[in-house]
Amino acid sequence: MYKGRRFVYRPVEAIKADIDRAAAIRDEIAAASWKLGLGGRITRELAAALLAEGRDLGANSSFVTVFNWLAAGGRTAFLQDANSMVLRPREFVSVLKHLRATLPSLTRVTSYARAKTLAQRKPEDLRMIREAGLDRVHIGLETGDDELLALVRKGVTQAEQVDGGCKAVAAGFQVSEYWMPDLGGRDRRRQHAENTARALSAINPHYIRSRPLVPRPGTPLFDDVAQGRLTLSSPHERLEEIGWMIRGLEVTSRVCFDHAMNAWADRRGGLLFRQDYEGYRFPEEKPLVLERIREGLAVDESKHVHVRELMAVRSL
């Protein structure tokens, strides 16, 4: 999603200025709430009043974002872009401390992080960042298979993924690892599943999240599928691949299917997997997940969403 974007290392003061601007918008919204007699509450009535003043809120995405954040409780923040961990550790700590001091309602701060960057960081630096206020990191593992990692140019090896993930866990972060069923297509699904299970078992993250592959127009993977160089698995084959991965997992993680593409049907026509954020508790619910997979494999494939249908829609 960042193809064609020039990498920019933002100065700490510029990041802090963004935080200060968010705080100023927060204060402006809160003042309007008190003025209306709402006691600081963020409500539809407040939104209507602001619109009635003639403010073009739709043209100010930052204002809308802060309003929605406050309406949701103002308790969480997500540090944007692909890899905030690339910031120099002491600069990152300075940003986090400013964020926490300026937005004291925060109870959780989250960011994306690349496994390779985590692997390159010293353990003491990661602990320092964690203690400064970064609570959770999301890591795109995609696959634990070295052949596939090279084919999709992930820029990391299984060993580096395990090293980075383990360092993040040891530093005290809550770690979510994402994997991508069918990334290797029909021909590499077994090695993809088994080596991914091996990597995730070594990391033992707090969360493991399934994000099945949907090749997007304009990407080499989409062209590979369209031109027959990569054969996507059928719905049942994808389920089999997930089953192989689940059987190989030896973790105390939450295993989650909280994405619309995890859309296999059960025998009653409902969703096969729970799609709540917390997912299934392993190892306790591992037998249940395997049983759900067996049920899904017993359902006619025509009842399941096929990724080729989504590709056809997105190519229009």
Throw out a few tags for this protein:
2 domains; 316 residues; pyruvate-formate lyase- activating enzyme; 48% helix
The count of helical stretches stands at 13
The CATH architecture of the largest domain would be: Alpha-Beta Horseshoe
Strand order of the largest sheet: 1-2-3-4-5-6-7
Note the main sheet.
7 strands, mixed
Oligomerization state: single chain
**CATH fold node name of the largest domain:** pyruvate-formate lyase- activating enzyme
Q: For the record, what is the CATH homologous superfamily label of the largest domain?
A: pyruvate-formate lyase- activating enzyme
Terminal-residue CA separation? 19 Å
Mean pLDDT across the residues is: 93
Number of domains: 2
**CATH class categorisation of the largest domain:** Alpha Beta
SS-based class:
alpha/beta
Helix coverage percent of residues?
40-55%
- The string of secondary-structure elements, in order, is HHHEHEHHEHHEHEHHEEHH
Proportion of β residues? 5-15%
